[in-house]
Amino acid sequence: MKPDEKNVSRQDKRISRRRFMGSSAAAAAAFTIAPRSVLAQSADPAPSQRINLACIGVGDQGRGDMQDLMNVDGVQVVSVCDIAKAVDYGSMGHGIAGLDAALRTVEQRYARDTKSGSYKGCTGYQDFREMLDKEGDNIDAVMVATPDHVHAAACLAAIRKGKHVFCEKPLAHSIYETRLVTEAANKAGVITQMGNQGHSGEGIRLTVEWIRDGAIGTVREIHSGDNTGARDWLTHGTTRPKETPPVPDGWDWDLWIGPAAERPYHPAYAPYNWRGWWDFGNGCIGDMACHNLDPAFWALELGAPTSVEARSSGITEETVARGAVYHFEFPAKGDRAAVDVYWYSGRERVPRPPGLEEGRRFGGGIHFIGDEGVIQCGGWAGPPRLVPESRMKSYERPPEIFPRLDGHHKGWIDAIRKGEQVHGGFDYSGPMTEAVLLGAVALRTGKKILWDGPNMKATNAPEADKYIKPAFRDGWSL
């Protein structure tokens, strides 16, 4: 820090609340289209306020999203879709999921509200395109929790029919697909939310408020990561299995493959290990960076990086790395300095924050290094702590500047009823997803990527084009 910068007052270091809230209000004002089912607001939603919800992908994660949304007052699940009638997640301790289990869950939930004690008002499909064609007039909003490679196809099908969309992270499987989904949602004026659940929590709001308050001065370096998938994704090896076991009963394997290139069914890919294969996922960075890096993108309005490079403990054309380190360079922007962001995947662990006392527990997550200290946060945008602890105890917390939400899923539903975009909609999560997925592009090319964000071009690596915009199988063009 320059000598004259040290004399800047705490008030001057804060980003203007008026400026931020004004820009947020302007963004929200652009989203004023309310669904046909929304006519009024009340503590106990009337039938006219009911949000008719369809769920695409009701396996392990999707089942949880569906149940959370179904618990929001006034949400009615009217249709569910999954390529598998039954999926055994017993090895993960999560039991049976899939289409049949989801239908039973919905019917049992609504049966409790009927005099007869039974309910059969929810439809079930294996193909989301058929579901949207047949049930579209009765659907207000759609939840998408398929494997990553189908996110864009499902989101775009829903958006083009004017449906509000909640999509699990990452928003899409490639940078090109992410841009398409973001632009389509903005054009349609629908209310959107990505499944980075920590974005609606108290922890991320505190982190953003403290950083903008100048709690650690100018932030110049960020370290984050996660060890998801380091051991279990590639248990079948790093090349395609040669065995061709039968497709499980009740599965439509062609629909599971979706826009990806055809290959025979094998449990090496589904229902769980697909994140370890490039055709379907992007490894740990695709799985977890939209959670753990979220505080950085919000607090510092990072936008697109100018360059990314990565090193790994070994990847193949087919499979992701068991461990990798990524280095993103973000340029200075407005009052913010340039920022170096490091992501550690799988076997590569996030280093301990500087100044963290011996014996003090460190669980990864994310930490910000500023000219005047360090902020450490738990994973999934968890609560912040200043380092060292003595600094935490003496810190005078700033006033709250962001509204607090009553849950991620409820926040999306509330936004639909108000006709206002929730913070964290695709206009925010789309650019963040693009930046995250660029890390996977850098890893696969083996080069430091020089990035032209607006045009989605690696200016020094034309060979990256096939990763930025992958080929789509016939019948699945976007």
Explain what this protein looks like in three dimensions.
The protein has helices at residues 10-13, 17-29, 60-70, 99-111, 128-135, 151-159, 175-188, 202-213, 253-257, 283-292, 294-300, 389-394, 408-418, 426-445, 465-468, and strands at residues 51-56, 75-81, 87-88, 96-97, 123-125, 141-144, 164-167, 192-194, 219-226, 307-312, 323-330, 339-346, 366-370, 373-377, 384-387, 449-452, 457-458. The chain is of the alpha/beta class. The chain folds into two domains: 29-195, Rossmann fold (3-Layer(aba) Sandwich), CATH 3.40.50; 199-231 and 278-468, Dihydrodipicolinate Reductase, domain 2 (2-Layer Sandwich). The strands form three sheets. Strands 15-14-13-9-12-11-10-16-17 form a nine-stranded mixed beta sheet. The radius of gyration is 23 Å and the shape is globular.
| Secondary structure tally: strands | 17
Integer count of domains? 2
Radius of gyration based on Cα positions: 23 Å
Classification by helices and strands: alpha/beta
Note the beta-strand portion.
15-25%
Mean pLDDT: 90
Q: Strands across the major sheet, in which order?
A: 15-14-13-9-12-11-10-16-17
Q: Termini distance? A: 48 Å
Sequence stretches where pLDDT stays below 50 over 5 or more residues:
1-43
Q: Characterize the biggest β-sheet.
A: 9 strands, mixed
